[in-house]
Amino acid sequence: MMLLFDENLSYRLVVALSDIYPHSVHVRDVGLVGATDEAVWDYAIRHHLVITSKDIDFYQRSILRGAPPKIIWLQIGNASTTQVIIVLRREFSHIQRFLKDAEAAFLRLGLDSDA
To answer: Pfam families per the record (predicted)?
Structure first.
């Protein structure tokens, strides 16, 4: 499962989570820093990536357009990179189920399990 980490998340997530989310990338790695949401959206579609972001805009776009791409919305406020890592590791099986669900466009995750 390949994630595309938005620029509001640390590029360090790529290495920190490479054992369970191999081949994931950060927008910085693919020349999309400062790009429009539309450009990030299109890149994710073309490369079969799941956009992972704290930005509500991707969540809202997924409601209007559906998938692809699928969106993981981290509703975690100003959480540290360590907290983001904890959430994405803790919710790994939930994320796998979400990705297998052909009808699901977005998954909202928070610091607690009930986001």
So the answer is: DUF5615
pTM (two decimals): 0.94
Within-domain flag for 69 = yes
pLDDT digits (tens, 9 = 90+) for 24-52: 999 999 999 999 999 999 999 999 999 99
Phi, psi of 14, deg, nearest 5: -55, -50
Q: How far apart are CA 104 and CA 107, in angstroms?
A: 8
72-98 pLDDT, tens digit per residue, is 999 999 999 999 999 999 999 999 999
Cis ω on the peptide bond leading into residue 22 (within 30° of 0)? no
Q: Which domain holds residue 77?
A: 3-109
Nearest 5°: CA angle at 77, between 69 and 89? 60
Cis amide linkage into residue 69, ω under 30° from 0: yes
- Residue 112 CA to chain centroid, in angstroms? 17
